[in-house]
Amino acid sequence: MPAEPSAAPFHDWNQRVDAECYRPNAERGSLRHISWNLGPTLAAWLADADPITHARFVADSAAAIAQAYHHAILPLASAADRRTEIAWGIRDFEIRFGRRPAGLWLPETAVDLATLREAAEQGIAFTILAPWQAAETGLDTRRLYRVDLGDGRTIVVAFYDAGLSSAVSFEPEATSDADRFGRERAAPRLRGGPSPLDAPLALIATDGELYGHHQQFRDLFLQRLVNPDPAASDRGFDIVTVGDAVAEALAAEGAEGPLPAVRIAERTSWSCHHGVARWSAECPDAEDGRWKGPLRAALERLAGGIDAITDRTMAGVPGDVDPAVARDDYAHVVIGAVSAAEWAAERWPAADDAARRLALELLEAQRWRLAMFASDGWFWDDPIRPETRQILRAAARAVRIVDGVAGTQLERRLVADLAGLSSPSRRLDGGGIYRMALADVGQPPPV
To answer: Where are the beta strands (DSSP E) in 19-97?
Structure first.
């Protein structure tokens, strides 16, 4: 992590958000009462930088759900990348929290049927979406739904309450008093169920960083809302986790009939009014988003080159190992569950040390090639920002490994492709931003 002056007095934004949000919420015990996901890359940083807070997350993880590993927009990913991202996220969850996840948070809740099919194929029972991601209008978010995925598969979807979620996220006055919020905002949404057999559900979905970072003292609001004074009078509702609500609904299906069916609106998300255009095109949500399409095209072209070289080179490693299968399983090395040498010896027992090292280098390139599609690189209005520079550093890591192993010149092609975009504020092209990203961490410029 380079030093980020805007995060002062902390070294970088990870440290600052940890101090303002992750640590206080973990210390207050709120995690055990709510559903949450901790992104695997953030979790790895937290385990190293603040192990006490990480240990509290692990201890209070009964209601945690998994997340795709690198926070990539899955409907924009290839089928192979989608599979790997979900597989790595599930495996990290299993190793970190010691159990299989029932639910999966889709980054930015970006969804399509292919993503839901892959999640269900890998054993995920439910996910959470925004109400406008249903194809039907007039949806009652106070109940759970099933999405038919074909081939006899389904997945449960909990649609969050847009009004309550928006109030918590964007109305500081609404969350200045947790008791009043419960009495005046939450309780009215829970009066009467969708049917006589249903207990109504009001799901509030927010960014975790809201509680103490985006809004000061909201860690206290959250603590009071989900863990009220036991001596206080009954508020008329209980705090439950999404996983518990889903499990209860599934257990009751036989007696009360199946969950209602719903169709999803394809390629939609919770944070882009234009589907998933924010991460791929000139989305009107950005004042000037002309750089977004060329950036994705440049990285997708790089990914194709890295994949072709990986497949061709790994074919020469003795042993019949599919590179795609090896990449999915490489999660064990990335997470630290096994050493790279032990893992490679098990996968390629007939190969010598040099061949195994070659395979490991290519898989490490694949790790960073996946990381370069993290969604925040496209989220904001200008590629000069730290988020875009971060994904460009991931791209540099991947391409330099491959060029070093295979003697190719993919980095030169990447820099040329990046010249097709520019910063709206600085008028610096993508090649210049790439060089700036490398200079941030003391890496040499491209040749």
So the answer is: 66-67
Q: Which residue type is seen at 330?
A: Y
Q: Which residues contact 427 (CB under 8 A, 6 or more apart)?
A: none
The pLDDT, as a whole number, for residue 281 is 94
Q: Which residues of the chain have pLDDT under 70?
A: 193-198, 231-233, 255-256
What dihedral angle (degrees, nearest 10) is formed by the CA atoms of 87, 90, 93, 98? Answer: -110
In a domain, 445, yes or no: no
pLDDT confidence of residue 296: 98
User: What is the pLDDT, as a whole number, of residue 193?
Assistant: 61
The CATH number assigned to the domain holding 65 equals 3.20.110.20
Is residue 267 domain-resident?
no
For CA atoms 297, 303, 307, 308, give the dihedral sign.
positive
Determine contact, residues 393/377, Cβ cutoff 8 Å.
Answer: no
Model-level pTM? Answer: 0.96
72 and 152: one domain? Answer: yes
CA dihedral of 93, 373, 126, 117, whole degrees rounded to 10:
-120
Q: Of 205, 83, 193, 197, whose CA–CA distance to 142 is shortest?
A: 193
Which helix (DSSP H) or strand (DSSP E) does residue 147 occupy?
strand 145-150
Query: What sections of 338-429 are H helices per DSSP?
Result: 340-347, 353-371, 376-379, 386-406, 410-418
By residue range, what is the domain housing residue 159?
5-256
Residue 264 belongs to a domain = no
**What is the tally of structural domains in the chain?**
2
**In this structure, are residues 161 and 193 in contact, taking their beta carbons and an 8 Å threshold?**
no
Is the alpha carbon torsion for 339, 345, 347, 348 positive or negative? positive
Q: Residue 445: exposed, middle, or buried by beta-carbon count in 10 A (0-12, 13-18, 19+)?
A: exposed
- As a whole number of angstroms, the distance between CA 112 and CA 133 comes to 10
**10, 137: one domain:** yes
